[in-house]
Amino acid sequence: MFDVAFTELLVVAVITLVVMGPERLPETVRNMTLWVGRARRGLTRARKELEGEVGVDEIRRQLHNEEIMQNLQKTQHQVETLITEAQTPIDDNKSR
User: What is the DSSP secondary structure assignment for residue 55, as one 8-state letter?
Assistant: First the structure.
């Protein structure tokens, strides 16, 4: 999701240590992890609700069914072509 390099994280950690001080740093880290967890859960919940309202599963199912129908139609056309080709020599033999 975010492309953060190790050096960027190190710079943020050093700045946080200088600003907060070593006494308040553990509490600050704990609070930050709490907020990050809440944000992740909220985003996950929102994504699931959105997918549910949009009907992503139903759309996927319909696309899959359409693909199957297209394959069946192609196969049906091939079988009909083969039958037609097979009947042509039979019809020629009957007329002789």
Answer: T
